[in-house]
């Protein structure tokens, strides 16, 4: 296990904090969008885009790049923020999110530099990831494929078709990450569909399973390192997270799954809390 | 037009194998129907480029999209009912919207599936696929055209839907397929039948039956449903003044609807859509079903004659 440098961890925490601020600014400017599941995924995206992924912002279609599919496409604010911060397009564009003059579509689209797959209709991204992983093996390219799923999303049957096939095809170049924030649009996931025991489900489907705290930068890095050593099996990282993480009134409630801060006061409060968090990093 | 019967599915499988030998970017997928769709022929020769994913049509379309995004030219096959109906959202979101290089080649379109019955007789697929932006829709008229069409879609970037039938078809063309162009298969002056797929041969035979009754029919083969050939439709309307469409598909959202749109916007003449009249099919031999629904030569001739008499007498 490579040593994880404290300075690197601090840098990634700051990136995650910056992603969260952008999420709030973007959905407030758009008066539309999904903050809850964007905030829960911010740490994972920060580690992916500022530590894990081999990508080249100047050459977004570089054939050897690692692939990333945001299967939970509604977390587009956090995704676009990470892409802009990584240099795929100017950060100014972020405040045009969901507006007709912008390429920043409500859900990820190939119009956006750095996006590898259109998503938004839930349950399909893992299949696309399998196709990318198969292509990598066919072409003897050693890139890796990462797919971020929502926990509500995995209620879709297509996910489990893909889970079976990824294991059958021994896709050890494929990593799924489940953002286990325990809340979907209408309610808490366990009141909608019983997803637990989630780890055992994936294990039963032939995957290697790693459970982590999805807000702990060190745990995220370690899990992604560990995923490189599976030897013939795909890895799923179950990232236990808090929906709305970082904004007190958005945490652990379905209310802010798909709506922006409801007033100037709410908006300022969210940014203030995130700024306080930044000072503590 | 030698009327030799040949399996369009076999022509598909053979052409895939030829393409596989010529190009290493060709990848073929199936969902547990490869012996029926004939993609198994490709799988035997190129196992490393053939992915039979089992009964997972939705997953197949998503994987096809991922492969295409990495530069592969992907053919994804199943029966029409599953390829377009079962996996519609995956085709829409993961293939059509990103305009990825996936060719959906479905076999067993229409009621000529036969004994399996309505559950397997897809009569809405042309409508479903035509409604998708970026998707182009082709129904080859015979096995010679299947070969040309498969080569054509492999050479063009972006998504296509190609609909094949289960049954053998008479070779009516020498395979000189022109994308987006209809073809006059028989000249006539009194009325035009515009047909697609298996119904072209039956329409030609119906025209012979009507000739005996003194009605001179023009017959047009419309292999490309989207984009539709507006010019040939308008010309036929000008030349004969009366149009009938025939398709092994629902009369809603298929060839008949596309022709009606062109006529009503450009050159309104009386027309009649013939095919499955918004009903599900039933089990039976494919040829007896065509007779049952008046979609064989006798049925078409009867429907056409009644329409002709109603309008022109």
Task: Please give a structural write-up.
The complex is a heterodimer of chains A (281) and B (313). Chain A has 281 residues and is an alpha/beta fold. Chain A has one domain: Thiamin diphosphate (ThDP)-binding fold, Pyr/PP domains (Rossmann fold), CATH 3.40.50.970. Chain A has ten helices and five strands, in the order H-H-H-E-H-H-E-H-E-H-H-E-H-E-H. A five-stranded parallel β-sheet of chain A has the order 1-2-3-5-4, sandwiched between helices. In chain A, helix 3 packs across helix 9. With 313 residues, chain B is α/β, with parallel strands linked by helices. Chain B folds into two domains: 166 residues, 3-Layer(aba) Sandwich (Rossmann fold), CATH 3.40.50; 125 residues, Rossmann fold. Chain B is built from 13 helices and 14 strands. In chain B, the strands form three sheets. Chain B has a seven-stranded mixed β-sheet, with helices on both faces. Chain B has a five-stranded mixed β-sheet with strand order 9-11-10-13-14, with helices on both faces. In chain B, helix 8 links the parallel strand 6 and strand 7. The radius of gyration of chain B is 19 Å and the shape is globular. At the A-B interface, helix 5 and helix 6 of A face helix 4 and helix 6 of B.
For the largest interface in this structure, which chains are involved and how many residues does each contribute?
Answer: A-B, 33 and 30 residues
Q: Could you tell me the radius of gyration of chain B in angstroms?
A: 19 Å
- Which segments of chain A are poorly predicted (pLDDT under 50) over 5 or more consecutive residues? none
Order of helices and strands of chain B: EHEHHEHEHHEHEHEEEEHEEHEHEHH
The chain-level mean pLDDT of chain B equals: 97
Instruction: Compute the average pLDDT of chain A.
Output: 97
| Euclidean distance between termini CA atoms of chain B | 33 Å
Number of domains of chain B: 2
What kind of assembly state do the chains in view correspond to?
heterodimer
Question: Judging from the principal axes of the Cα atoms, what is the shape of chain A?
Answer: globular
**How many domain units of chain A?**
1
CATH class division of the largest domain in chain B: Alpha Beta
- The CATH topology of the largest domain in chain B turns out to be Rossmann fold
- Spatial order of the strands forming the largest sheet of chain B: 3-2-4-5-7-6-12
Radius of gyration of chain A: 18 Å
Computed structural class of chain A: alpha/beta
CATH architecture of chain A: 3-Layer(aba) Sandwich
């Amino acid at each position: 296990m490579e040593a994880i440098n404290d300075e690197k961890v601090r840098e990634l925490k700051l990136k995650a904090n910056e992603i969260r601020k952008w999420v709030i600014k973007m959905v407030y400017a758009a008066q539309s969008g999904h903050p809850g599941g964007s905030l829960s995924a911010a740490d994972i995206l920060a580690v992916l885009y500022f530590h894990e992924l081999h990508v080249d912002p100047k050459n977004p279609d570089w054939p050897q790049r690692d692939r990333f599919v945001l299967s939970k496409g509604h977390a587009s604010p956090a995704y676009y923020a990470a892409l802009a911060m990584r240099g795929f397009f100017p950060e100014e564009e972020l405040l045009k999110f969901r507006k007709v003059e912008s390429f920043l579509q409500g859900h990820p689209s190939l119009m956006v530099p750095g996006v590898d797959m259109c998503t938004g209709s839930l349950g399909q991204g893992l299949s696309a990831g399998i196709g990318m992983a198969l292509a990598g093996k066919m072409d003897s390219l050693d890139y890796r494929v990462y797919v971020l799923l929502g926990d509500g999303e995995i209620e879709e049957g297509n996910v489990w078709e893909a889970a079976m096939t990824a294991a059958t095809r021994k896709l050890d170049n494929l990593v799924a990450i489940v953002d286990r924030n325990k809340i979907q649009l209408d309610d808490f996931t366990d009141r909608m569909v019983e997803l637990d025991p989630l780890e055992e489900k994936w294990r039963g489907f032939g995957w290697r399973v790693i459970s982590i705290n999805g807000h702990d930068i060190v745990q995220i890095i370690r899990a992604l390192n560990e995923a490189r050593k599976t030897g013939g099996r795909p890895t799923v990282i179950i990232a236990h997270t808090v929906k709305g993480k970082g904004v007190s009134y958005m945490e652990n409630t379905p209310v802010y799954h798909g709506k922006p801060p409801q007033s100037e006061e709410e908006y300022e409060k969210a940014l203030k809390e995130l700024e306080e968090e930044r000072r503590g990093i | 037009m030698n009327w030799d019967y040949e399996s369009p599915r076999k022509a598909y499988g053979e052409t895939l194998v030829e393409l596989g030998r010529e190009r290493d970017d060709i990848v073929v997928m199936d969902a547990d129907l490869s012996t029926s769709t004939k993609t198994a022929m490709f799988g035997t020769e190129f196992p490393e480029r053939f992915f039979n994913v089992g009964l997972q049509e939705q997953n197949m379309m998503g994987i096809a999209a991922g492969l295409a995004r990495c530069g592969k030219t992907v053919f994804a096959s199943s029966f029409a009912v599953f390829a377009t109906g079962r996996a519609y959202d995956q085709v829409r979101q993961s293939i059509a919207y990103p305009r990825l290089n996936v060719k959906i080649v479905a076999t067993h379109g229409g009621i000529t599936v036969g004994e399996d019955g309505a559950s397997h007789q897809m009569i809405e697929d042309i409508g479903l696929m035509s409604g998708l932006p970026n998707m182009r829709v082709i129904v080859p008229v015979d096995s010679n055209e299947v070969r040309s069409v498969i080569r054509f879609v492999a050479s063009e970037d972006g998504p296509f839907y190609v609909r094949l039938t289960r049954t053998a078809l008479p070779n009516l063309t020498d395979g000189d397929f022109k994308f987006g162009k209809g073809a006059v298969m028989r000249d006539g002056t009194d009325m035009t039948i515009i047909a697609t797929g298996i119904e072209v041969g039956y329409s030609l035979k119906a025209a012979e039956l009507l000739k005996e009754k003194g009605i001179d029919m023009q017959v047009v083969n419309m292999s490309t449903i989207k984009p539709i050939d507006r010019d040939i439709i308008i010309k036929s309307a000008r030349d004969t003044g009366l149009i009938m469409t025939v398709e092994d598909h629902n009369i809603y959202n298929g060839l008949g609807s596309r022709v009606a749109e062109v006529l009503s916007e450009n050159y309104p003449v009386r027309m009649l859509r013939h095919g499955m009249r918004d009903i599900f099919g039933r089990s039976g031999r494919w040829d007896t079903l065509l007779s049952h629904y008046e979609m064989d030569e006798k049925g078409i001739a009867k429907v056409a004659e009644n329409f002709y008499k109603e309008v022109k007498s």
